[in-house]
Amino acid sequence: MSAAKASGDELSNLAGVALGSEKLSRPLVDALVEKVYIYPGNRVEIEWKVTDFGLIEGSEAV
User: Most buried of 14, 19, 33, 58, CB within 10 angstroms?
Assistant: First the structure.
């Protein structure tokens, strides 16, 4: 998958792979994570490629 936003079918496939995994693989990280920022004091910020990953239609983000 390119750096472009993922389609609905690609998101469904990624969700299935992520849910079946015990840890993140490099291909899954490459597909989901845009950037990772590391700050002093062990603070980490992740910029995701998708914003609604894992949300079910009709549900709200926690």
Answer: 14
